[in-house]
Amino acid sequence: MPRKRAVGAGAKRRLVFVDRPLATLVHLRHGTTHDVPACWFGVNRSTITRAIGEVRPLLSERGCSVTTGARLRTLAEVVDHLGVTGETGIVDGTELRVRRPAAGRKDRDKFISGKNKQNAVKAMVLTDGDGRVLFCRPTRPGSCADITHARQSGLVKLLADGPAVEILADAGR
Question: Average pLDDT for residues 95-121, to the nearest whole number?
């Protein structure tokens, strides 16, 4: 005999129904980890994992499936993927403002961005033409030009030695 519950009984969901498909679509579209939507919606990561597990099968039953495709783990794999598919890549560096490093830290001055005159870290992001993130390099102190980031990550060498790939970039700093 099935268990009977009163209407409204049981644990209360911390992520309301309209937010669950939204969190799932953000995860599927941008390939973010479950921690990102969890932070945005102010819930635990396991709540997002549960929501995605519930909503994704519902979407695929209705023909809204997302193909998993190739998993690109390294910058070399991304360059090879762009070479095989013939897609155009877009690379750009972005600065994220951070709190000033502690007074005793030896490399404290490296965090000062000359561009924005503030403490920052910089990340290099490589996307495809549709804006899907293919690679994001770990952050570095903010006083670094985009081309320096590309050289340090090995992107310049991969492009020189690898397949013919078109990558758009700004002249940025």
Answer: 72
